[in-house]
Amino acid sequence: NAGVTQTPKFQVLKTGQSMTLQCAQDMNHNSMYWYRQDPGMGLRLIYYSASEGTTDKGEVPNGYNVSRLNKREFSLRLESAAPSQTSVYFCASSSTGGNQPQHFGDGTRLSIL
Amino acid sequence: RKEVEQDPGPFNVPEGATVAFNCTYSNSASQSFFWYRQDCRKEPKLLMSVYSSGNEDGRFTAQLNRASQYISLLIRDSKLSDSATYLCVVNMGLKSGGYQKVTFGTGTKLQVIP
Description:
The complex is a heterodimer.
Chain A: E1 4-7, E2 10-13, E3 19-25, E4 31-38, E5 42-49, E6 56-57, E7 64-68, E8 74-78, E9 87-94, E10 103-104, E11 108-112
Parallel strand pairs in A: 2-11
Antiparallel strand pairs in A: 1-3, 3-8, 4-5, 4-9, 5-6, 7-8, 9-10, 9-11
Chain B: E1 4-6, E2 11-14, E3 19-25, E4 32-38, E5 44-50, E6 55-57, E7 60-65, E8 70-75, E9 84-94, E10 100-104, E11 108-113
Parallel strand pairs in B: 2-11
Antiparallel strand pairs in B: 1-3, 3-8, 4-5, 4-9, 6-7, 7-8, 9-10, 9-11
């Protein structure tokens, strides 16, 4: 009963380093999302993938790239980490078909020094 | 005006009390609505969908008022375990390219006191 799985759960980086956050879902959902959550800001969409093979920018895409590797997996890459990217990152997925709720992974806590 | 607005709280209520949260949304074309619960340092979890006619799940009741563009969540007989942040979510439905335009409120914090 895994649902949405994110790795790693915690990470500390130095400014300028790169890393990839991994996300996989086993619910056969078509759509996947990456959010960041900062205190007082709520969840903000970074990138989304409506279906396998497609990705699009969300509200705050600068400094990030994504890859929809297959239907199950959607990764988020920070090419050159900056302190402003210190945040909690959530991956989510949902089935296609309009008004379906999103299901979230348990998050990655990322600190950039 | 923000797309989705919630009173951040905190709402401090005694065990057994009834508490209600409202959430207003700006886009009258919004199609579906949800309440999520988020515990401290955890992921948001779906609490319940909000249907036009209103719906109930145990001690939780959700209502939608399209005319005034708000949704509400009522919690009866509050338990200590209800302490969390409650996020209002508004979904404008399927857009071009298969994307659901979903906006999350910043949440209302509830603290149930013994």
